[in-house]
Amino acid sequence: MDPRRLSPIDHIDNTLLDAFVQNALPDLLAPLQRTLVERLPHPCRLAVLWLGDNATRILASVDSMGRRKTPGQNDISHVTDSPTLHQCLSRNATVRSPALSDPLVRWVAEDTCKPLLCLPLTRNTERLGALMIMQRAGFVTPEARLTELASWAPLMASLLVHEIDAIHGLFGAVRFARDFTLMRDTETGQHQLRIGGYAGLLAQVTGKTNGLDDGFAQEIALYAPLHDIGKIGIPDEILLKPGKFDEAERERMKAHVTNGAALIDRLVDDFRLENNPRVNALRAVVAWHHEYIDGSGYPEGRAGDDIPLETRIITVADIFDALTNVRAYKQRWSLDEAFELLRSMSGKQLDKECVQAFVSERKQITEIWQHYAANGA
């Protein structure tokens, strides 16, 4: 395992962004599927063919039923191997009645659907993939109805690209905000690097036991380093104070949580992402990472199930990192001491499942710690 892959702040690449978008596609397709049901007799489903490798290879098919599949060794995986997809993308035009003799079309439609249209998905000059509109197998669509569908279906494709654009914007905004924090204060920035690694690993483990897909861990790895973004508004004389805070300073420092939540709310509003359920995890990470399951945390005193899993993960990772690194007001604890404290807080302030998972992954946690220690973080 490469620890850097778990902390996207210093290794954000197209692979992570592609995965992030792919996991959002079922939610983006859902309202379009409802429109299809209203306007097309016997609709089947929508599917997006998502491209990678400079738009030459098919990474995955993601449909409106929430299913995602990747081409197998014997499946078509290159654009030029599919007459339908090649025509659609090379001409940037809709293909009507894609033939089931095309192995890619057959792979997407399976035995339950009949393809009606294949539409290009482009972002500026970038080819993202294609949208396949399908009807239930065994039904015939009159030519006039197909012509009508072809007249308004490009709007569906445009709306989908618009939503993908918003995700690109969110991704870029998150990256910018974290990089800005990194420049503001070295220790806060380095804390971001480390916590992204710890939280990404912990999300992988707890996500599996809670029946969550890979997108959960990817989102947590993306959002985790942003949990302390509110510290941007804390004066240096408090943030970098080499000693304990007085009461007023402590309250000012605690305000970084509400400051951060306000910044995220502004970001969500500016990018019009309030209806995207995946944004909820970002706000939860920022707004509640100092809440404890026994209700003794701040700022809201949330407890138990009122604290979502993503936040419980961040809290464990945050405490571990604070303990195992030098701060202006404290020396570094040993890893043994830090793990022991987490055990003592398990089931009280900290989620028991998260602590157990964190401790069970001690070897990889140590690798992440050593990686960043060796690289000055």
Describe the overall structure.
The chain is of the alpha+beta class. The chain folds into two domains: about 30-160, Beta-Lactamase (2-Layer Sandwich); about 185-375, Orthogonal Bundle (Hypothetical protein af1432), CATH 1.10.3210. The chain contains 14 helices and six strands. It has helices spanning about 15-40, 85-90, 105-110, 145-185, 185-210, 215-225, 235-240, 245-255, 255-270, 280-290, 310-325, 335-345, 350-360, 360-375; strands at about 45-50, 55-65, 70, 95, 115-125, 125-135. Strands 3-2-1-6-5-4 form a six-stranded antiparallel sheet, with helices on both faces. Helix 4 crosses helix 5 (about 185-210) and helix 5 packs across helix 11 (about 310-325). Residues about 1-10 have low confidence and may be disordered.
